[in-house]
Amino acid sequence: MSSDLEHPSSNSFDTQYDSNNRKSAFKSALSVIPRKARIVLSIVGVTIAVITLLVLSQPEAKKRPIPETTVKVDVIQVAPSDYPIVVNTSGTIQADTRGNLVSQIRGEIVSVSDNFKTGGTFSKGDVLIEVDQRDYQAALSQAAAAVSQAQATFRQEQANAKQAIRDWERLGNTGTPPELVARKPQLSAARAQLASAEANLETAKLNLERTRIKAPYTGRVIRRDAVLGQYLSVGTVVAEIFATDRVEARLPLSQDEFAQLGLDNLSNPNADPFNVTLSSEVGGTRYTWDALVTRTDSTFDLNTRQIDIIASVIDPFNTTGNKPPLRIGQFVNARIQGRTVENAFVIPNKALREGSYVFAADNLKLVRVPVKVLWQDDQNALIESGLEAGRLVVTTSLNSTLAGAKVKLSDPGLAQPNSAPEQPESQPAETAPVTTESADENVAPLEPTADAGESNGDSATEAVSTAESTSADN
């Protein structure tokens, strides 16, 4: 009986002893781990427990089908038309006639014109400089005296020749007398001496006239190199001048611009003239001048790979109008009108995507259409191939990922007959312009932007994302 009573107590003692041993072992193991490590392990354990609890308690979202979103767009209906190629460039004004005014005689400057100064204006024939004439007047008098003496000698020889022939005949000789008897050599020498004296006289007159340096044309003085009292030699530059009846603008063009304008036909006399409109801002006001392309350079510039064309402006200094004169060195913008392209499809630049394709609304779906661009200016692009007459080209800026989406035209009147949307009998067709907000909750209206780049398509993507989130919430 006593042994039975002792047995339970022995088992309890053993159990308690084992528990104490385990606790002691656990405490011994914990004592081996540093205190900081124990804190980190506790935090990690609590974090794992919290995350597990959150994952297990998360409610399952109900998946519902997302309704298809319709994109509202602006479109244009393309048709072939004739389009003139226009190139915009810029250049500087240069003188058509420009050169140095030089002295042709020697002498001291004794007089100058009031207009003979930098920036001065003059007319053709105006005397700009006068050189001392006294030496040339004396030379003219000497030349005139030499002519008179030569004339007298020539007349004397003529009389001697006639007398010699009469003496020959009086002596009974017949036939033609010899040249020496007829004094022909002496007569020829006197004639030559007279011609030389007359030539010297003309030279003296010309030198005297050259003492008055005159303007060869109507123009202006760029630079004056001579002053009163200066001694001039033959060939001395007295001024740099230019003519004001015509100026020209040198306008650089690229090889593609040169070819598209059709300037290779400039040498053809039957070709139409190439009109140029020059413009420049003076005093806050922009003025324009009409010009014509007269010639081109023969080679391309090796550094810029461009070729210059020359446009001439007639009477650029006419101040009778309400515009200022064109001045040498003035910077101008130029608009050059070249050949006309026939039967080309013209679309605005904002409709062209990445320079290689457009979006078309075919059967009220957004279709990506590759195109080949013939020419592009600041506003429009000429499409050589890829489009057909009557096709609806989208001008609204869209993201390229929307290809294949349904579209809603801002102008339903442009809808194709086979693609017109069905309308309930009780609901009239929508005719609101693009600026009107759509009442359809599945329509994502997009406002067109001036930029045709793909980066501006975020509004369309945002509209699609909004529709998706709305459907998920419902």
From TrEMBL:
The chain crosses the membrane at residues 37-56. Keywords: Coiled coil, Membrane, Transmembrane, Transmembrane helix. Residues 416-437, 456-474 have a biased composition (Polar residues). InterPro entries: MdtA-like_BSH, RND_pump_MFP. Residues 410-474 are annotated as: Disordered. Residues 102-237 form the Multidrug resistance protein MdtA-like barrel-sandwich hybrid domain. The keyword Transmembrane applies. GO terms for cellular component: efflux pump complex. One of its GO terms (molecular function) is efflux transmembrane transporter activity. Residues 187-214 form a coiled coil. It holds the Pfam family BSH_RND. Belongs to the membrane fusion protein (MFP) (TC 8.A.1) family. This is Multidrug resistance protein MdtA-like barrel-sandwich hybrid domain-containing protein.
